[in-house]
């Protein structure tokens, strides 16, 4: 629950909100982004892709189910700051092991409560994601604004080294082992190896600086490119690695940051969306089946397809690349953003959204089956 100490939130354009300190008392900076999920705040907070972002929750009640020992997507909270409207006064859930405010405080996360987060969201939607400062130690918004304007921007941010695992580790397959996957950890979420394990995949999670030889040394049947924070335009080493994987025709699957990396490896560009997609009810069309999936998203950048402006109608045709034909397999029905890529001539596909989604929805879980089928096919041809 919020404590009674005053706090302020100041956006880069000077818009100011007043509230109360929530979590740790202090001051923090980052990129202000909003998440529209009504559930899943623990997964959001512990998702490494939110590193350096101050997350605004549009849902007014946050913290109702407290925190538990099962839902973390990584070993810590990553958000740079947290903005809520009306935090729960007591946590109530059979799995809860503590309260959210206490956990935020324990992990040093500065937050603010009592903010009209829907008004703030509408502002960000009109003006775009921007830098923000939250402080419960500064009372002068102009002084805080000056510091906001000195904080680093998300464009150009290379953050993989800050979130990747220091050492390789293995997540064993459930039951019978079928395949081995080398996962490049650029900010992986725990639920990815878990979804793979359910398909008989043993995942070797490897540091972001791994080389093609490191991937091959674990006996990888396939490669996974993980989600992660930062600007994909900076991810030159993972892009070069993905190109090696494509050249060797090793089956490849990637999610979110991983999709942007495959896009760049194929010769496409990436660009920053106005305010991004963050929530758990985004409609995505799978063009192969014509089905619409309700999906979980967390991305501020997207792949730019050749010859079209961001937001323009996505081409149906197969696009020629250095690695053969590529189709845009998935599109977001809200704004036509590219949500998936599939190579026709090399065994590679990716999605920009999150099929591993915990707290759901699980419509896109089939993509892990597609990956298993792709690996199976690769083994038959080998
Ligand atoms: N979840 C992710 O992988 C995010 C990818 C990238 N940092 C973006 O914001 O678009």
From TrEMBL:
It is an enzyme of class 6 (ligase). L-glutamine binds at residues 49, 228, 230, 257, 260, 298, 300-301. One of its GO terms (molecular function) is carbamoyl-phosphate synthase (glutamine-hydrolyzing) activity. It catalyses: hydrogencarbonate + L-glutamine + 2 ATP + H2O = carbamoyl phosphate + L-glutamate + 2 ADP + phosphate + 2 H(+); L-glutamine + H2O = L-glutamate + NH4(+). Pathway: Amino-acid biosynthesis; L-arginine biosynthesis; carbamoyl phosphate from bicarbonate: step 1/1; Pyrimidine metabolism; UMP biosynthesis via de novo pathway; (S)-dihydroorotate from bicarbonate: step 1/3. Its EC number is 6.3.5.5. The keyword NAD does not apply. The keyword Oxidoreductase does not apply. InterPro entries: Anth_synth/Amidotransfase, CarbamoylP_synth_ssu, CarbamoylP_synth_ssu_N, CarbP_synth_ssu_N_sf, Class_I_gatase-like, CPSase_GATase1, GATASE. Small subunit of the glutamine-dependent carbamoyl phosphate synthetase (CPSase). CPSase catalyzes the formation of carbamoyl phosphate from the ammonia moiety of glutamine, carbonate, and phosphate donated by ATP, constituting the first step of 2 biosynthetic pathways, one leading to arginine and/or urea and the other to pyrimidine nucleotides. The small subunit (glutamine amidotransferase) binds and cleaves glutamine to supply the large subunit with the substrate ammonia. Belongs to the CarA family. This is Carbamoyl phosphate synthase small chain. The gene is carA.
């Amino acid at each position: 629950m919020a404590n009674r100490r005053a706090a302020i939130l100041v956006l880069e354009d000077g818009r100011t909100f007043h509230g109360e300190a929530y979590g740790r008392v202090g001051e923090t900076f980052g990129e202000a982004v909003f998440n529209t999920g009504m559930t899943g705040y623990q997964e959001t907070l512990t998702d490494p892709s939110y590193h350096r972002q101050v997350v605004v929750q549009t849902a007014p009640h946050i913290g109702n189910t407290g925190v538990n020992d099962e839902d973390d997507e990584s070993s810590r909270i990553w958000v740079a700051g947290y903005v809520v409207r009306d935090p729960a006064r007591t946590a109530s859930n059979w799995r809860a092991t503590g309260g959210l405010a206490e956990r935020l405080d324990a992990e040093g996360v500065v937050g603010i409560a009592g903010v009209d987060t829907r008004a703030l969201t509408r502002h960000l939607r009109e003006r775009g994601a921007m830098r923000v400062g939250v402080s419960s130690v500064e009372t002068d918004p102009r002084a805080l604004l000056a510091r906001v304007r000195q904080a680093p921007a998300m464009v150009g941010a290379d953050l993989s080294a800050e979130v990747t695992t220091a050492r390789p580790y293995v997540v064993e397959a459930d039951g019978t082992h079928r395949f081995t996957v080398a996962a490049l950890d650029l900010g992986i979420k725990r639920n990815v190896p878990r979804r793979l394990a359910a398909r008989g995949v043993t995942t070797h999670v490897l540091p972001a600086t791994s080389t093609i030889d490191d991937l091959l040394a674990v006996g990888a049947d396939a490669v996974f490119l993980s989600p992660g924070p930062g600007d994909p335009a900076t991810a030159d080493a993972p892009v070069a690695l993905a190109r090696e994987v494509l050249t060797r025709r090793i089956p490849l699957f990637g999610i979110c940051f991983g999709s942007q990396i495959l896009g760049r490896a194929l010769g496409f560009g990436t660009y920053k969306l106005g305010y991004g997609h963050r929530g758990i009810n985004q409609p995505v069309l799978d063009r192969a089946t014509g089905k619409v999936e309700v999906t979980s998203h967390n991305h501020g950048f997207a792949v730019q397809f050749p010859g079209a402006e961001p937001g323009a109608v996505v081409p149906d045709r197969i696009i020629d690349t250095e690695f053969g034909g590529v189709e845009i397999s998935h599109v977001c029905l809200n704004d036509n953003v590219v949500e998936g890529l599939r190579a026709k001539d090399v065994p590679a596909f990716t999605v920009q959204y999150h099929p591993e989604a915990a707290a759901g929805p699980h419509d896109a879980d089939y993509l892990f089956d597609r990956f298993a089928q792709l690996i199976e096919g690769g083994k038959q041809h080998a």
